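The methods section describes the discrete structure representation at length, but only in general terms. Since the whole study asks how a given chain folds, the encoding of that fold should be made plain. An entry of this sort, consisting of the sequence and the corresponding backbone structure tokens, reads as follows:

. . .
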Amino acid sequence: MESFIDKHSQEKLSIDALLNKINPLSPYGYAKKKEMPVFRPGQEDLLKAEYNLMAYLDHYYLDRDIISMLNHVKDITESVKRAESGEVLTVVELFEIKNFARQTVRVYNTFRDNKFYDDIRIERMVDVIELLDPAGEKLNTFYIYDDYSEKLKLIRDEKNQTSHLIKKIKKDMRDGIQEDYHVKMNLKGDIYLNKSDENLISKLDEDKRLYCSDHTISQVVFSIKYTDELDGLDSRINILRAQEENEEYEVLKNLSQEVGKRSEKFYSNFSAIGKIDLVLAKLRQAKTTDSRPPTIIKEHKIEIINGRHLKTEEVLSKKNKSYTPVSIKLDRATTSITGANMGGKTVTLKMIGQIACAVALGLYVSAEACTIGLSGKIFVSIGDEQSVEKGLSTFGAEIQNLTEAFKNVNDRCLILIDELAGGTNPIEGYAITKSIIGYLADKNSISVVTTHFDKAAGKEVQKLQVAGLKKIDLKKLEHDLLENPGKGMDIITENMDYHLIPAEDYDEVPRDAINIAELMGMQKEIVDQAKKYIEGK
């Protein structure tokens, strides 16, 4: 991503507003998001295929089975890698592998008719399910079944029989003792007596079947004494348990080897599920942002109809303010956009960059329609609000960035420059701006430059300006300002027209700044003198 647009430029364009709303549901989807490719010139067909896949999956973005699978599937990548390298998996790992295989069956059934999109083709894992469910129970559990080993079955059978014999012997002893002494013995084989019952205590103390296991100030506890037969049976149980563990380990080793042999099938499904998840996440992002698929062309041109910059739209929405979508057509090497501050020039620049970046990432765009050719790189020079004190240092940073950008100026880039030389004196600023616009005018990149210098662009450059207050009834606006003192900025902002219009349509110099100064109550003699300067008087 950074080879396409650097981090600083990503921040300026608020690319996070695009990416933060793409939220896959599975670990495989998140892995795919980290690997999202950037589509460059020459990859138009690949990008169109991506959009075709999105259109295909649009029918499934609310599919209950798919969403359930994505929410419940675990990341078993490391387990499969361990199995592939010959390590022995645990019972928990095999359970998760079995669950993954069962989940993929649901996805396979959903897309079994898919004949065109290899990226989301699911490999059937019936063999894995049968491997991990030899009894065919179809339960969401895993157990080392007797079916895996005849030896294991024999060991378990003997262990169970021995356990039952131990329980029977203990029960018979317990029943005999209870009958002989008319006492109650708990299931562990313990009798609790009060110390005052000395006669019974004496009798029990002489019974070879019992021994005193505990005593306190007030009571005595007698427990069943293990016989040689019970000791022998217990020893046999311990031997059988060790044999069972060894045989279970052999079963786990064999199962792990079988899983390892199928690793490629697992990796293929990891990729397919991740792709499905990522595309569905992209579609959800498109739904929430009202974004639509662009039309991809091979020529390096951009036409946006009613485009929106998502971060700005979000900020305005929180303030209960509406966003004015902007249309622009960039079919020349360079476009100059003029207009007063508050006119939305910077937001328009960010909107162009954000939409171009969305296309490069294979996302839908926040516009009513968009026809666009891919760019090799995006360069952005949008400064922060500048003070006079740091004007030259900021300008130096701007020039450094642009110098680097201009090295790629014939490589079909998108170059976005906002208020170049804003921190320098007007004469030098005008000269540098005019020179740079002229330099970019015949290059292979698309460059958009916003500026206060209305005459910095020559005839070969597309000249646009923000409509601003040109079509506003200034007398009505003045009346609204008088009626609502203290709300001047809000009223002017609400009346600003942010649409772009051809600058050639107007011969006169734009007067938005002077109009705003006048409407906001600037002293009349100052405003009148400013108008005379513009008129050359």
